[in-house]
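Sequence in, structure out. Go.
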Amino acid sequence: MALGTGGIFPPIPVARPLGLTLGLTVEDTTMALKDILPGKLGFGAAPLGNMFRDIPEAEALATVDAAWNDGIRFFDNAPLYGSGLAEIRMGEALAGKPRDEYVIATKVGHVILDEIDEASRQRRVFGHGRPNKVLHDYSEDATLRSIEHSLKRLRTDRIDIVWGHDIAQDFYRDEWLGVFEAARKGAFKALDRLRDEGVIKAWGIGVNRVEPIELLLDLEGPRPDGFLLAGRYSLLDHDRALQRVMPAVAARGLGIVSGGPYSSGALVGGPNFEYAPVTPEIRDRVARIKAIADRHGVSMKAAGLQFVLASPAVAAVIPGASQPSRIAEDSAALAEHVPAEFWRDLRAAGLVNPAAPLPGGT
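Output:
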């Protein structure tokens, strides 16, 4: 299978994962996601792809180093992040680190081509990333090709977790069900087989909406190990996920990696929510939460992280960070003492769903 790198990458000795041709028949090797992940706090690599701004190379590498030095050993990436830039930077930052000491996840569905796409500079989210054209393809062949490319960019001989990326209405609009069906016939079956062959440890889908997860849970097969759900289970937005996804995932012994716990930064005073400018409604909700947090001496990051991790369905949370200082803030937030009265006041104010699990069983 041709990698199609076109000389973009330097020669890197990467072992071809046994079984990428899907020709093996082996026993089921399903593992619980919580048994695979090395801790509750991981590293979301989207900012490394120059998300919203042009991040200097040294700053990006220093951020990954800071995460490593802080004890973080789970790194989540994707080809779409800067058209491969985030994977390249992470590969550089983790080069030389003991491979058995960390878990790495990436995604399939967006294949990065050598062809230059001049319109890429108009992309709002990753407009500062690499200008390579992106091919949206969830077929079996594209899935295997994408994994091969990611191995090269990440400078590793294996990937532990693979998510099918963006198979949802926010990315594909009215066409999303057709894309889901293509993924069911292609990517899902390929990833299911790779997991059973032991080439990867787990697979699922990484999405910003709950509906694709609900749909996948209803299928008799293939059998995902968990999900990456970004933004839909956060202190600012969790009602829809609580209706079905969170209880179903917990009941089946699967796991959710929660992305975007700060809701694109809106929870901590940032200008964006859902990759778009904060609305007056969200701004008001943040202000009400912050007023209660200030009264109890609780940081907004601690409130956001600890709320998410209180769910029995959540295996880990992956805040994104583009500066080394953010890593220390996240670790401190995770360890911060948050009094039970804070959670009770949030509940009484109607700022958390009555069905939401809260830290300490509040």
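Check: The first helix runs from residue 33 to 36. The radius of gyration is 20 Å.
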